[in-house]
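Hypothesis: this fold can be encoded by more than one sequence.
Test: take the structure tokens below, design a sequence, compare later.
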């Protein structure tokens, strides 16, 4: 038992943080094997995966930049087409207004011309009707005057040429007086 106590005492004098020599040697060899395995096998695979991921990310960024540039180009084309369409619509609207104004002016001129024609035709018709009425009136007034004069005198005044001249002279005097009164 004493021997055991001596052995325990000698072991307790040894540094507790320092493992015994054979364990240290086995631990170091095991660490070297694991380190070598990681360095030869896992590290290249990890680096390869990281490189692929970096390439994919950079490719995605480049693709996104290209798509952004293309989208910007399409947007600018759209804006240009929209501006052109607005300009074309404004031009068409202006052209339609001008055509409308021209059409209105033409219709007014046509209406004015037709009005003048109608007025001229009305004046012509009125003048023709007035002349016809005046002629009919002359004949009727002449006949009535001749009949009246014949009844007053007591004899028939049948000389037509003379009657016409007398009636015409009388009616002409009446017209002259009417025109002078105006």
């Amino acid at each position: 038992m004493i021997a055991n106590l001596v052995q325990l005492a000698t072991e307790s004098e040894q540094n507790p943080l320092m493992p015994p020599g054979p364990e240290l040697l086995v631990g170091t060899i095991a660490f070297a094997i694991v380190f070598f395995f990681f360095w030869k096998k896992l590290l290249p695979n990890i680096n390869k995966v990281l490189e692929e991921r970096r390439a994919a990310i950079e490719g995605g960024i480049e693709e996104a930049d290209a798509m952004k540039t293309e989208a910007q180009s399409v947007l600018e084309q759209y804006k240009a087409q929209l501006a052109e369409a607005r300009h074309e619509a404004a031009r068409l609207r202006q052209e339609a207004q001008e055509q409308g104004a021209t059409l209105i002016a033409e219709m007014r001129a046509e209406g004015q011309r037709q009005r003048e024609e109608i007025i001229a035709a009305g004046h012509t018709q009125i003048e023709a009707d007035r002349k016809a009425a005046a002629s009919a009136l002359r004949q009727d007034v002449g006949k009535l005057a001749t009949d009246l004069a014949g009844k007053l005198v007591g004899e028939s005044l049948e000389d037509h040429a003379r009657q016409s001249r007398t009636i015409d002279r009388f009616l002409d005097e009446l017209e002259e007086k009417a025109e002078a009164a105006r």
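The two ends are 174 Å apart (CA to CA). Residues 50-181 form one domain.
Hypothesis status: open.
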